[in-house]
Every structure is written in C-alpha cells, then in structure tokens.
Model the fold of this input.
Amino acid sequence: MTLVKVFLNTCKRHAEKPAVIDQNREITYGTLHKEALESAALLLSRDTSSHVGILLPNCIEFVAAFYGILMAGKTPVPLNFLLSPAQLLYVIQNANIDTAFTNNLFKPQLGNLLRHILSAEEKGPCTAAGEEKIRLGEEEELAAILYTSGTSANPKGVMLTHKNFLSNLDGCIQAFKFTEKDILLGVLPLFHTYALTTTMVLPICVGATIVYLPRFSGPKVLELIEKRKITAMFAIPSMYRVLLRTVESIKHELSTLRICTSGGELLPSDVLEAFNRMFPVPLTEGYGLTETTAIVSVNLPERFMPGSIGPPLRNLEVKIVNDDGQRQPLNKEGEIWVRGPNVMKGYYKLPKETSETITSEGWLKTGDYGKLDGEGFLWITGRKKELIIISGENVSPNEIEHVISSHEKVFEVAVVGVSDKIRGEVPKAFIAFREGAACSEEEIKNFCMQRLPHYKVPKYFEFLKELPHGPTGKVLKRALKQ
Done:
C-alpha cells in the first residue's frame, strides 16, 4: 500500500462523511478528493522540480496540497513557517524546491525565491487531474521530506517513505484503537512529524474526521472539544499546561474525549497529576522522533506507567546499548536504539550523517539515554545530544551560539537549556565580552531577534568575565548549568 492508495480508498468509502474542518469551512472526503486532484492538476500543468514545498498553517488546503503533490508523482516538503529567512532559504535550496503551495499570510516569506507560488486565495478555476494521470507510488518511494533542526545549525531533511508512514500508523491504530468514528483535533503545526502523522495521515487512513486549529488557544480548544465532540488530541506539555489554566475558569462539556496524548518533550509530573484530576480522561505520554516517523512508544489508559514513556509499539524493536554498542540488561541506562519499518530512509544529501545514525543492521541511534524495565516500559533518563526542546521543537545550542558569537563585542558564548514552566525548556546564554568592550542585555537580545526565530532567542543572559573551560579547552557547559 501507499499513502495515495489509502487516501483514494478512504475518499471512495466515506465520500459523504466530513473529512476536514478548519476555521473557514468544512468538507467531505468526496470534496477533499476533488481538491487534491485539482492540486495535482496544477502541478502537472507546470514544469516543476520533483520536490514541492507546502508553507501553510493547519487547514484544508494543506491536506489537499499534500495528497495532490503525491498524486502528481512528486514529494511534499512541509516548510516550517517559524524558520528564520536564512534557514527557509537553506531548506528551499537544499531540497531543490522551485514550487510551493502557500497563502497570502505566508506568501511574503517566499519573496522571489521560487518559480511557482500557488496561493490558496488566488487559485482560479481548475480542472481536476484525470485518474489516468494519477501516480499511486511505491511503498519504498519518498512520501515526504521533513526538515528538523537536529544537532547542527542547518536543518536536516529526513526522508520518509510510504512504508515508513503506514507502518508507524499501523502500530498507532492498534495501540490507540482508532476508527472512522473518531474526531481528532489538530493543534500542532503540520510541518512537524508528530502532527503530520497523528493528525493528518492517521485519521485519513481510518476515515476519521479532522478538526484543525491554525493557532493554539486554550479557550478555543475547549470550545472545539465541546462543539465538535472531539475524541482525541495530540499536543505538547506546554499546551496542556495552558489548558489546565483555562479549564479552571471556563467550563465546557468534555466527556467525548477518550485519548489525550502528550509528546515532543518530557511531561512534567505536576501537569500529568493536574490534568488527571481536572479532565475526564487520563493524559498519556509518548516518545518519538522525526527519524522514526513520529511514535516509538506510548502510554495508554489500559497500560500505563507514570513517569515512563510507555511500551514500544508492537511492530518495532527498541534496545538500550552502552557506548560500545552492546545491549544493556533491563533497568540499565544507555542510548536508546530503534529498529523497524518506521525508521527513515536517511538524511537528504547527507550520506555520512545517515551512516553515523543508522547502523548496518538497521538500528537508529536516537541520541537519547534511557532504560527498559522488566514490564516492557521505556524510560527517558537524559539526552546524548545537547538539544534544547522548546515547546516540542528541537533547537540546537550551536545555532544560537553561532549567531551571538558573530556580534563584534562577544568574545565567547555558551548556550544551555534551562527549565521553564510554560515551554518546557528555554535557552540561556552565558557571554564573555572582548577585553574593554561593554554591551547591554537589550543590545544582544535585539541582535538575536534580527537573526533568529523568536522562540530561539535566549530568555536569559548572564555576563561573565570568562567562561569555565576543561583541560582540552572546551567550555564546561555542565558547570554553567549547575
């Protein structure tokens, strides 16, 4: 099977059923099928490269564009609208994108970077592509390239196949018991694998209904749960924390919920406990990566261990290894490795990084430390990589350090993640200035604001005469965190 075949089957079986509801309109699967065919026809009528960008919020047009691109025999590349202009340019050039679907809100971000900009508001009458022109694809072909910050300054393109998506969804559908009767609320941006997999591809696989919110709002989420009778929601801990504050002051009927899952970053115990007190369904926690097409493990109401990230999905393998790659016994900490049909094909144009991340036996090195207990639950104990996870988004300290160090008065800088009740973690910058130089926090912050997305600008700054160094000359970030 492929994503296109599944999409066409669902649209045929559920032609009259509500498929997607956004802030502007509601469409059936039959209409979604028609709009996807129109998107495919737009591409087939133009001379475009094989990779097509999507720069859109959560909306009907995103879904139609994604499947239209696939049916035109091309690969969708969802674009992160939070990227800085330099990073967006890098992704467009790296992925060889010359065409993108967008709207009037995001169109200015593309400027003159592309040959073809297909704007949702400006789309005129269009004939749908004939069925004979539709590419169904092959299971080992690319279904998407998703760019992730990773551990370097430039985003890395994760190549995911039809088989990657469908195998991960097979495990998720089994675990969550999703059916066509479910109504999922999509609050996370669809350029993120967690959202793309669980709140677009998954519901379409089973013929469920999707309700999209383009921008997260606690009151709006509670309103939609009641109005649309939402049964499932996937979000990050900081969003659930906001919901807890909202539900105290605004009462809504929430009894239709049956699944609320947290991912993207570790779930604080106070959020878990408060949610379980105030909502009619327990909050479960899962774990995954873009490189594993989203979900690796998840707690479920019927199989739950507080503090853990749940048992691995049934159709993949997880093992814990030491620094020599040797499997660790139960309850012994080590790096988490994952193997299964959900593991990415590789990083786009990065064969060296791919071979360093995926072993010859197919094991993906996650870079996360954890352990497996005797009951089969997976636990996260730390991160091998120095990533900062801000509201579910991976942020490389190196990227922020690179920007700050380019300031003429800065001699040395080190950035670490510190705890934050709202966003999980936020960056803190330790800075040593050049001899005789003086600079205010406001000046450095403004410098960062002009060169970084707002969420990557350090929340805290500390100025030191010099940074601590180890015997090899490296900055001792552990000492700074302490």
Remarks:
- The radius of gyration is 23 Å.
- The first strand starts at residue 18 and ends at 21.
- DSSP finds 14 helices and 24 strands in the chain.
